Amino acid sequence: MIPYNAFSLPLHFPTYEKPGAALRTGGLVQLATFLVIAALLVGCSAAAATTLVQAPTDSAPVLTVEPDHGPLQTVTLIGRNFPAHAALRVRMGAPNTGLNAADLAWMNADEDGAFIVSVPLPALWPGANAAVVEEQLVLAVIDPSLNQTLATVIYQQPAARITPTPDLLAGCDASILAAAEPVAIVMAEALDILAGATAGATPVTRVDRCQPMSVSGRDAGGVWVKVELPGGYRGWAASASLRFNVAVNVLPVVE
Fold first, then answer.
1. How far is residue 146's CA from residue 20's CA, in Å, rounded to a whole number?
2. pTM score, two decimals?
């Protein structure tokens, strides 16, 4: 009996090519492989170049705060990425109450949108009748032309700043200190209002403790401030005897 697969036919038949055909075929394969690799390299390079061009940049305003060294209760604000040459203002607030309307300082950004400014911290919390006892202050940079807050930063006060001090306005109506315009209240038992910014000037009138008054300016050293009383009296008063709702050095220098 003849086995089943004794006459099975081969599945692959021999083929015959002309001389050099294998060489040409191998060359075409190598060329195609080279073109594929080159295309992949070009694609990777393009993707890498695109990534570099489209890398995002940080253009939002950045604000940092540093405490100053020395007897004055001031901090330094450092800003960058603000609008170039913009006229800016600094205001203060608390995280849970918002910003006060009084400007603590004003400055102009340079051509790169940067600035450095020293900001005095008022001894009185704006709108209150006691010394500042907040642990955290919010310092904000405002663009007054847009009425917009551009950046804020939290300042953690040193322990020495948050120690309560005696309230020298006890018994006074300190609600005037919530006003948006510069005002003051007399802390001394009595205070002379003088015709000039010097201790030897002629007295215009004398006022008692708790007397409120408007403040329109200061001398160059901030020792004297120009005031106006509700009765129409105008003159100069010693700043050390007054409690203000703004820092004295932000008042304009007047004659």
1. 81
2. 0.41
